[in-house]
Amino acid sequence: MLQKIQETADFLRTKMQSNPLTGIILGTGLGNLVTQITDKIEIPYETIPNFPVSTVEGHSGKLIFGKLGDVDVLAMQGRFHYYEGYDMKAVTFPVRVMKALGIETLLVSNASGGMNPDFEIGDLMIITDHINLFPEHPLRGKNLPELGTRFPDMSEAYSKELIAKAKTIAAKNNIKVVEGVYVGTTGPTFETPAEYRYFHAIGGDAVGMSTVPEVIVANHAGIRCFGISIVTDLGVPGKIVEVSHEEVQEIGNSVQPLMTLIMKELIN
Ligand code: HPA
Q: What pTM was computed for the model?
């Protein structure tokens, strides 16, 4: 694992013209932020040694070095999902590589189904915490002290400081944001009404199929995290309708620019 991380980091270093401290992982169809990146160097995942290749529709799958405003960033357009068949080591491998490249702060985005009855479709939910319901833990197995401690603290998995700043930015720009707990589950099925009820009962505000593994590994590595979830459908009793991947992408598309604005200002 350590050798693979080094190999991949060495390869990427030959492509880098800067030393970004900020990493970004963009979720399903949420590539809008990339349009704001200048001085871009784009590297398709399939050309990166040891990188898994993304297969899900709506993911173009590339790593991008460039500038967001005045700040150097390393962005992943498209991520690796557990439901695609990758194991958790593969899903989180890019975060390990980010750490090796010097990333100190990670911003993540995703689409989710809202269970909080106060939420509306198209809301931007600032992730305040998560519940990990994936059946495989990304840190399971022998701990490599070079990567982090055996029993990582998760009391502030999402940086309170970044959450507060993001809320200030949203208020200043008249962007409605909500806050909540993200439940990470495998998918690829969307939830049954009973499952949405269950995820709400255990303390979740929104549910999705990603993010939690990456944030766990980032915390293990000492990277501070910030996440925004776009609520693309509602798992609220009485408001549940059929969900499709296409609708999720459509709603995601329509509110992406607002999320981009918050992330860009936050990074700057
Ligand atoms: N459930 C799980 N993942 C999702 C959903 C959902 O309702 N919407 C978008 N991603």
A: 0.94
